[in-house]
Input
Amino acid sequence: MNRTIDVLPTSWRIGLVYIFILRYVSPMLAGHRNALLAQLALALVIFVGGATAARSVELVMFEQPFCEWCEVWEDEVGIIYSKTAEGKRIPIRKVDIHDDRPADLRDIKPVIFTPTFVLIHNGAEIGRILGYPGEDHFWGLLNQILERLPADG
Output
């Protein structure tokens, strides 16, 4: 299966936002004493706003130490996940099933097998993948679950 990989690092994206601000916002702020501070504040608002919006949907990978299939997933998918279209749209968070469950995941059904991938939208479970069935099946199952997301997700 062919995966589209976005190779533009986050630091470059931040730089591009700052360049945009310098090019288009600076002329408007030219006479102000705190123009540079205003530009930096605007860049931070844009960056943090985008990061916050991205967190309303996430893929949670429940794992445990010495999980053979978790390691296989990491070798086959994990190394590229954040660079794929799915990874850009849906960030992944890893949670050890033996640790205390984070407060925002307490309402999720129990997880017994690892790896288990749970797609979360605004705190609610949309779907899950039990185990790791191989790279091609993983992407297919993930895309089936993504189709269940509301239009705003």
Observations:
- The first helix runs from residue 10 to 29.
- Residues 55-146 form a domain with the Glutaredoxin fold (CATH 3.40.30.10).
- The mean pLDDT is 80.
- Strands lie at 57-63, 92-96, 116-121, 124-130.
